[in-house]
Amino acid sequence: MKKNVLPFGIIAIVGIFVAIIVFYVGVHQRDDIRLAEENGGEEVVEEGEVETDPEAVFANSCAGCHGQDLSGGAGPNLTKVGSELSADEINNIIMNGQGTMPGGLVSKEEADLLTEWLSEMK
Questions:
Q1: CATH top-level class for 54-119?
Q2: Residue 90 burial (CB < 10 Å; 0-12/13-18/19+)?
Q3: Where are the chain's structural domains?
Q4: Of 12, 21, 40, 108, which one is least surrounded by beta carbons within 10 A?
Q5: Is 121 within any annotated ligand binding site?
């Protein structure tokens, strides 16, 4: 007597697919929880939303290379960037990147917030 194994194969493939989706969702939830803990419990901005606090934008998108205190690291020191570059130059670098820094790390609105905030660093 021959058994049809096709239904079992379909169930196995669907099960693997569901497991991958659950894993993917869980990893992103873990990352969101970790970010919330690092930000002192502050609400994490979802992708597509615009952050309105320039310091939070910097902490989330720039501090990894430029340091939490703007003192530099993999990226240059920004503590006096406002006295070295104009607002237009700062905005151009944020939007288009420079050297090893890629452009497009933040939205246009967030780039404008960062530009205004960094321009005051003198």
A1: mainly alpha
A2: buried
A3: 1-44, 54-119
A4: 40
A5: no
Residue type, 97: G
Q: How confident is the model at residue 51 (pLDDT cuts 50, 70, 90)?
A: low
Q: In what helix (H) or strand (E) does residue 104 lie, and over which residues does it extend? A: none
Q: Using a pLDDT cut of 90, give the percent of the chain over it.
A: 31
pTM of the model: 0.58
* Residue 28 is labelled as binding a ligand: no
Cα–Cα distance, 98 to 120 (Å, whole number): 20
Averaged pLDDT of the chain? 84
Q: Please say whether the beta carbons of 55 and 114 come within 8 A.
A: no
Closest CA to 82 of 104, 108, 54, 52: 54
Beta strands (DSSP E) in the chain are 97-98, 101-102
Is 65 assigned a ligand-binding role in the annotation?
yes
Give the integer Cα–Cα distance in Å for 76 and 63.
11
